[in-house]
Specification:
- It is globular and about 60 Å long.
- Strand 1 and strand 2 form a beta hairpin.
- By secondary structure, it is of the alpha/beta class.
- The strands form three sheets. Strands 3, 4, 5, 6, 7, 14 and 15 form a seven-stranded mixed β-sheet that branches.
- The protein is built from ten helices and 15 strands.
- It has two domains: about 140 residues, Quinone Oxidoreductase, Chain A, domain 1, CATH 3.90.180; about 140 residues, NAD(P)-binding Rossmann-like Domain (Rossmann fold).
- Helix 2 crosses helix 3 and helix 2 packs across helix 8.
- Helix content is about 30%, strand content about 25%.
């Protein structure tokens, strides 16, 4: 028997229960994993609270991340005792995810636990940190260099934002962190931010082209914030967009693209190849300090998930949330 968080749907309303299941209830998979830690992401919180159309198959164990130990495998690539991490691949949406003590997964979804990380640290990084790394990789591939000037990170106290600030600072960039929580300025500076910007300056409608300020941006917010970031980006700059906490619309024009040559990169973390995932994890291991990772992380029990999900969506959680699925 094992414990899991189970979501069901009744009259189009999401129902949440903590259940004891027999292993025979697990979905088909090549590899069975004993989960040690999961994490709580924005998408998970939307699924648990029923505020977003995340779950596509019912009943569902949510959780887009997990880290643990292989118990058994029908695929020769994996042996009992291998320590692994899994992000995305539809977990928590179409396939049972990580907010459970056991998981049954396709062999191609697993990565070996990146060198230098414990399973708990891997879940402190998890999808949020891995997404931040994908954003930074897009900017680096674009050719953005520290000498090009300030780099903006929006939603900087969130999970993706916190890791993006630390990663960019570790790479030598001058980072401006945008936040609506001025009380977190010291925290963001410890993450490596050189400047703090009140998010209010980015949420009001502005001109389609504004004074050039940013060499590049990692945007986790979307909507008017993204539109203003684009309008303020320097000639031949780049914006990596990975979130929509502020809305899915983009009230902008083509002017930043055709008059300043700005490039907008859309970042999807769910179905990246394992080769790309390995590059992202390696970048994080090199440039995010363990003490930064520890400071941006807090831990909750599996039984705390409903409250933690509401707190996350209400903006009451800073940084990353690790879930100990065994308590």
């Amino acid at each position: 028997m094992f414990k899991a968080l189970m979501l069901t749907q009744q009259d189009k309303a999401t129902q949440v229960a903590f259940v004891d299941l027999d292993e025979s209830a697990l979905p088909p998979g090549d590899v069975r994993v004993k989960v040690e830690y999961s994490s709580l992401n924005y998408k998970d919180a939307l699924a648990v609270t029923g505020r977003g159309a995340i779950v596509r198959s019912w009943p569902m164990v949510p959780g887009i991340d997990l880290a643990g130990v292989v118990e058994s495998s029908s695929d020769p690539a994996w042996q009992a005792g291998d320590r692994v991490v899994v992000n995305g691949w539809g977990m928590g949406e179409t396939h049972w995810g990580g907010l459970s003590q056991k998981a049954s997964l396709k062999a191609g979804w697993l990565l070996r636990l990146p060198e230098g990380f414990t399973t708990r640290q891997a879940m402190a990084v998890a999808t949020a940190g891995y997404t931040a790394a994908l954003c930074v990789m897009a900017l680096l591939k674009h050719g953005t260099r520290p000498q090009d000037g300030e780099v903006l990170v929006t939603g900087a106290t969130g999970g993706v934002g916190s890791v993006a600030v630390a990663l960019l600072a570790g790479l030598g960039f001058e980072v401006t962190a945008s936040t609506g929580r001025p009380q977190e300025a010291d925290y963001l500076q410890r993450m490596g931010a050189a400047h703090i910007l009140d998010r209010g300056s980015l949420v009001a409608p502005g001109k389609p082209l504004q004074s050039e300020r940013w060499a590049a941006t990692v945007d986790t917010v979307g909507s008017q914030t993204l539109a203003n970031a684009l309008a303020q980006t320097k000639w031949n700059g780049a914006v990596a967009a990975c979130g929509l906490a502020g809305g899915a619309d983009l009230p902008s024009t083509v002017m930043p693209f055709i008059l300043r040559g700005v490039t907008l990169y859309g970042i999807n973390c769910v179905f990246q190849s394992n080769a790309v995932r390995e590059q992202a994890w390696a970048l994080l291991a090199r440039h995010v300090k363990p003490d930064q990772l520890a400071e941006m992380t807090h831990e909750v029990a599996l039984s705390d998930i409903v409250q933690a999900s509401n707190d996350l969506l209400a903006g009451r959680i800073r940084g990353r949330t690790v879930v100990d699925v065994n308590r």
